[in-house]
Amino acid sequence: MKKKILLLTAAVLLTAGLIFFINSKKDDPNTLTLYGNVDIRQVDMSFQVGGVIKQMRFEEGESVKKGDLLAVLDDRDYSANYLKSAAEVKKLSAVSQNASSVYQRHSALCKEGITSKQECTAYLNTKNEASGSYEAALASRQYAKNQLDNTKIYAPDNGIITSRIQEPGATVQSGQLVYTLVKSKPIWIRAYVNETNLGDIKYGTTARVITDSKDKNTGKKREYAGRIGYISPVAEFTPKTVQTEDLRTDLVYRINVYVDEADEFLKQGMPTTLKIDISNKEAQKASI
Question: Domain tally for the chain?
Answer without folding.
Answer: 2
